[in-house]
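User: Reviewer 2 asked us to show a designed sequence for the structure in our supplementary figure. I'm pasting the structure tokens here. Could you produce the per-position amino acids so we can include them in the response letter?
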């Protein structure tokens, strides 16, 4: 694995400092090859998680379960009699189970560690996946409509743990439609939904963090463009179709109001 690959892997796992994370994000903007490598790592990570999920859901074979249940009790550790050769498979089984539990423990330790880093790129990947679903909705685009803006701000602020304000983006040709509550990187996320004159969706999302990112960073994940920034105890991202050229202006307008 190259040094860049190791950095990207740590970037995905949320193991870099804020400064290192921002440096990688800036590098991604100008290096298509690095962006492609990041997306490949994301794909490989998802495949590994899917395979692990299938493995832990698979039932233990009946014969193996019976053998474990019927296995004789362990002998006294200082007994002079050597263990029977026929029981060597039990030792092998114990090693296999230990390896499995160890792998599972490492996986879940990694999972429990990730939500603590709100600026980890995983939350942007989650947002992109949500946007791919909700941006296609018409009648069910939002959970709470724009007519309840005051309630939206109170509800999401209390739930997310950071102040949520609904910016007026009419100057950018966007009309507020309402809001949803999402979960990304294991944390609640506020999602404010806007439509342009062509009924295309632009979303503004917010996640609480103790280490807001500095400055604006532009990224592309799949078929969506994103502009992320931080401030006031939260990280923000504006997401829209990859052919939009106005997202930076949208983000800058929103940043003055949130």
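Assistant: Here is a per-position design you can include in the supplement:
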């Amino acid at each position: 694995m190259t040094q860049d690959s190791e950095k990207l892997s740590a970037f995905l796992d949320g193991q870099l400092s804020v400064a290192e994370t921002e440096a990688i994000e800036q590098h991604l903007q100008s290096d298509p090859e690095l962006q492609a490598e990041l997306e490949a790592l994301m794909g490989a990570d998802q495949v590994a998680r899917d395979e692990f999920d299938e493995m832990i859901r698979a039932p233990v074979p009946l014969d193996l379960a019976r053998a474990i249940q019927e296995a004789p009790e362990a002998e006294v550790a200082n007994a002079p009699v050597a263990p029977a050769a026929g029981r060597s498979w039990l030792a092998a089984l114990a090693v296999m189970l230990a390896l499995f539990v160890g792998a599972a423990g490492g996986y879940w330790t990694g999972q429990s560690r990730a939500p603590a880093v709100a600026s980890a790129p995983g939350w942007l990947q989650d947002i992109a996946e949500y946007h791919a679903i909700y941006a296609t909705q018409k009648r069910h685009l939002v959970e709470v409509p724009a007519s309840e803006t005051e309630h939206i701000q109170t509800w999401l602020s209390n739930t997310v743990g950071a102040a949520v304000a609904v910016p007026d983006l009419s100057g950018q040709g966007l009309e507020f439609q309402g809001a949803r509550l999402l979960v990304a990187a294991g944390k609640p996320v506020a999602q404010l939904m806007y439509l342009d004159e062509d009924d295309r969706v632009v979303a503004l999302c917010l996640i609480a963090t103790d280490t807001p990112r500095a400055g604006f960073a532009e990224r592309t994940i799949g078929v969506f463009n994103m502009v992320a920034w931080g401030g006031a105890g939260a990280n923000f991202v504006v997401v829209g179709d990859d052919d939009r050229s106005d997202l930076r202006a949208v983000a800058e307008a929103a940043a003055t109001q949130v």
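For the response letter, you might also mention the following. The longest strand covers residues 175-184. The radius of gyration is 24 Å.
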